[in-house]
Amino acid sequence: MMGGYFRKMAGTTQSPPRVSLAEMLWSWLGAFVGIGAVAYLNYGPLETTTLVLLIGSFGASAVLIYGAIKSPLAQPRNLLGGHIISALIGVTAFKLLVPHLWLAAALAVATSIAVMHATRTLHPPGGATALIAVMGGKNIHELGYWYVLMPVGAGALILLMVALLVNNLATKRQYPEFWW
To answer: What DSSP string describes 116-137?
Structure first.
């Protein structure tokens, strides 16, 4: 009985093949322009305000929407829906459980996963977006539900616009695979 359990951990397929140099360069360019645009706004025009536009989960989104563009997890529905749903859940968990941050963190991430599954918007960086709402510190907490719109919604939209522009410049790349 235990042997079967541990055999599952051996894996069942081979590692995927290496991508071409061109694919690597397009992925690099998309990530550079996308994160660069969000970071420029964050550290430029927004620097003297209490607003935030750049959050850690956008780095993981960049991997998907510029580096794994055919993945169902990288499509616009998943990018936007996953982040926005997770932000709402994360802020709510923080507000309800603020004295018990360990519980708020666990509830935010677990609930985000379940709701993203239920809404067909699974986007792994959404789990980090929910967690950031709980552990993000004073600037994030003071935003309250505005966190959903800025940085989450606005930042994800900027990343998506760059993904649409850059991913379709190459003749062998097409993004998105689907919208809804």
So the answer is: HHHTT---THHHHHHHHHHHS-
